[in-house]
């Protein structure tokens, strides 16, 4: 088949491989979608802000508000400059903070609460504490993927990360005030809107159909290519049913204009049908062929090597690996359906990695011989084998300097030869960590500070820092009173499990009173419990022993590493 133009252009990338998504402080250009009451916000580098503006007779509707408070301010400035109309509604099409965390800035000229913020009826339940629990490691993995730790191509030193601005609210997210369901219609700013959802696990994803304008507005459910189904930093395994449902629903509509927060607009019913039909086929092909090999008992790592793509798809634009890659999505299907165990009995209780590496090195003749083989592989044009050999030495001893140097060289070579920008960024970021030029703990602390969380979320995060070796046999309950917010919580430790409940606990051994800022200082290890009690920042109600006993069970924030363990 022929691929009709215009086709969504891929995101452009900087020389170091990081995506050019626009400076958060740069005001984007408001670009109209000719023929439709919709506008994209585009930066000079060609990237699109995560926001689509819809204009109706009575004002504006925003689908998404951008990535963070600063980009929200830039979006607000662009809208104010281009439109002489008020914002009547905000729609959260995607539950990612990167899609909806600019709302507080966008609505700064309005009163928060007066402008309705709409989201799917399952939006809040999808934002579970379990998702929050891993947000810090996800932030670090995203930094690896997007190259936030990299400078230019000729300077591999770590770049400083932007600290929060003094005028940035602690929690920029404005929760939805109105929830909607699939196929529900309502009028927003004078526009007749029908809401669409994926209809399965990612129900919180929401798209819009402007009934009177033959225009569909989609968020991140459909990207420029199906290669984007799974990014490398880690996402929920996206079963093809999620995309199939939305694509099927879109295909039943009379669409002349397809607009997206991550998609350059498509015009023409035939172009859009081509795009949706081939996209739909590729999603199903990848899923079905993965299951085909799984049913034969094929190991996961072999499945991804055994899925040839149809020639007509390979020759089209649909497999360009600009964000993820198709075979990575295949691996996630394996985990989604069958879990962690490959099915091979030898993998049931494997030898610990470090011990396996030490035994393997001994059989191969020692570190020197392994590293010489690694150097030969790199010289011979096989950086993957070179990296695998060097990794054995580092796994056996993470402090081994020659092993780390060899692994750094191999990782840089892998990155230099990688076409996928996000994988290239990961290789180069990994090389920085292995060489000692980058500490991922610093990246975590800059990108995932507890200062952006609510007091309840901060306390909940302590659940994942309980060290069993420090808390065995400890049972204690304390009350926590936030002096500046008036909130009360009960924190109970029993059997090395910490639980947090709202309100004053019925039974408690002691209580503490502190401000939210003091709580942040405590959990980020900026100040010790003893120091804060001595200065009066923490007031203890009762005897301090139970408070000290509970805090002794909480380990400091761990040193984070992905390549030196």
Automatic annotation (TrEMBL):
Which segments constitute the Alkyl sulfatase dimerisation domain? 301-435
Any idea where the Alkyl sulfatase C-terminal domain is? 451-555
| Pfam families hit by this protein | Alkyl_sulf_C (PF14864), Alkyl_sulf_dimr (PF14863)
Q: Which Gene3D superfamilies match?
A: Alkyl sulfatase, dimerisation domain, Metallo-beta-lactamase domain, SCP2 sterol-binding domain
Q: Does the keyword Kinase apply?
A: no
Q: Where is the composition biased (Pro residues)?
A: 160-173
What's a Gene Ontology MF term here?
hydrolase activity
- Under what name is this protein listed? Alkyl sulfatase BDS1-like metallo-beta-lactamase superfamily hydrolase
